[in-house]
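Researcher: Let's continue the batch. This sequence belongs to acylaminoacyl-peptidase, and it's 693 residues. Same format as the previous ones, please.
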Amino acid sequence: MTHTQPRDPRTLFKQLYDAPVVTSAQIRPQNAQTSGGYLAYLTQVQNHIERKTKIKTLRTLFLTDNSASAVHSSVAELVDVADSAVDIQGAKQAILRSIDDKKGGKTLYVDIYNLHNGHRQHSINVTKHHGAFCSDPTFGRLRWSDCGQGLLYTADRRKQNDEEASLFDKYRYVPSWGEQFSPALQHPRVFYIDLSSASPEPVQVTTQLPDHSLGQPQFGASKDQVIFTAYANQKDGRRLGIIYCQNRPSEIHVVNMRTQTHTLLSNPERAVRSPRFARLENGKEVVVFLSNEVNGPHASNCRIEAVTLDGSPYGAAWSRIQAYRDDDPGLYIDQLPYEPFAGHENGVDSFFATTNVGSRRTVLKFNLINDEVEDVSALMENSEQSSLDCLASDGQVALYSQSAFNKSQQLLAHHENARPVKLSERFENDGYKALGPLQVEFDEETKSWVIFSEASKNQQTRGILVPHGGPHSATTPALSPALATLAATLDVKIVMPNYRGSTGYGEAYLKSLLGKVGEYDVKDCVAAMTMAEGRFNVDSDNWCVYGGSHGGFLAAHLTAQYADKFKCAIIRNPVISLASNATQSDIPDWCYVEAGLAFDGSREAPSSDEYKRMDELSPLRLAEKVSAATLLMAGEDDQRVPNPQTRHWYHALKGHGKTVDMLVFKGTGHPLDSVEAETSGFEATLQWFEKYF
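Model: Same format as before. Here are the structure tokens for acylaminoacyl-peptidase:
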């Protein structure tokens, strides 16, 4: 088949950007009156350029027992819905609604629907009981009890529109949980509703731990037993940013709702999260959860632990995948799937988790009975150039998302003792068809992905270097509408290195970067460029660097340390001064740890010696060496790398007479992921390339 290379990047980007992406799922048995099978409830997010918003929809697919063919599919837009969940029997659906009222506040409801006849069984106004719902993975999703009579969810303890609140309660400063959380979120707590009562209403599962923020609720062996995560403040009352930071002080508790008896299930010296309860086929009742070292790198190698409901350790505590190999990639798991367990009718025997193995994401299956670990991606087609995530499992069938740099998201169903099969056809519009000629290769030595069009493979082209952020994360196969469009339309080769400090290559590789930022990561990026110049025929002095956060830190360093190689730079929310960011960021500890320094939470600013060390590692002092035309982008609401950091670089370059411009996007934070920021940012990048690249 002959492919013609598209020449209009704006049209292609819009087509790719418009595609829906499945972000979470539940699998439930179909109504017993039918011929069997499963219903997959998929939560999708789709960008709407005209409305400048991201639309959340609920898509329902019917799966047969022995195949993955989708018999029907319905899609409904989720308006005013904070979260929803279907009970384990597939008979009832709970919906958390947050509706604008005439006074500028919110009216909050918990609605319960009978899925067999469509009737609404309950509509509970909970506005007077608590503040806004929390429905993110950090603080937890809505949960049903096995009996279908109990509900758990997380909400702010603070009531909305509380006219009786004292002046101090109304205006008192409460530290926020940082990036991607509203400063208005004060004290997340777990709430319980007993639907079997005559007048069901929410009650807090516990009034203990008053200074902690509670979330991630789970039912235990009965609807009276509730498991939750409790996040602690720092000693000085601060709350360090929590999202993507797996090293925050926390505990996992179980409480009996009738007796208010508490049991601590986790080691208080570890940072813990993602409790999941299961009854095993051997009769044991266990809680599986994740733990990390407190402090240190934000994404260190984690441990998977299992305990019984009295807190006694059960079975293995995994911290390695390949227990007898020195090159074990480690475990780098942010959260466990919403429902991770697999097994048989008489109980659970294993669970799924998604981690980085090398430069790709994969699903691992951990056996709770015999401690074995299986890499599920070994069963997949094209596993070496794709990533796999586990969306859900109901015990009998698991649902995966497969992603690649040059293909749309693919959903797969995995029935027990069978190979995973495609759930449905990919979302393929003309934009995705244009990605047919897009090639992907991986360089083992530099741990770098390279994407380019088929037509440009043997031609000398410009290069775009894209270092990831973190730095303790990784570039793994996933479609980026912006990068795929640039590779498909501009005759460029895009190089994405997993430099020292990246996850997926073991703890020694990750921690080797500490105290060496701006040096080891820069050298590894330059090695990837040298590789691309030789292996992929990239013009050695015609590069652009395109990075954000720590990738922006690297972009600034690279354009200063290797000024003759870069024609331009696109830099998003960069860390420019570790020292000043230590007093501005929601994660000040990051600045110390990456500089190889110990973080002392009792001090509000670096000492003179610490400041000197951070300054030595930062790009700010090198601005006069830059020659690349630099476009800066910043989010006005960024709490992780507040935009004064970006302004530092803007004024430093401007002061030295460099070519620089800066865009600031309102209503968006560190990821710059609002529709306006993503679309306008891509258009600005094209215009910058047209002028300077």
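Researcher: Any comment?
Model: The chain has a mean pLDDT of 92.
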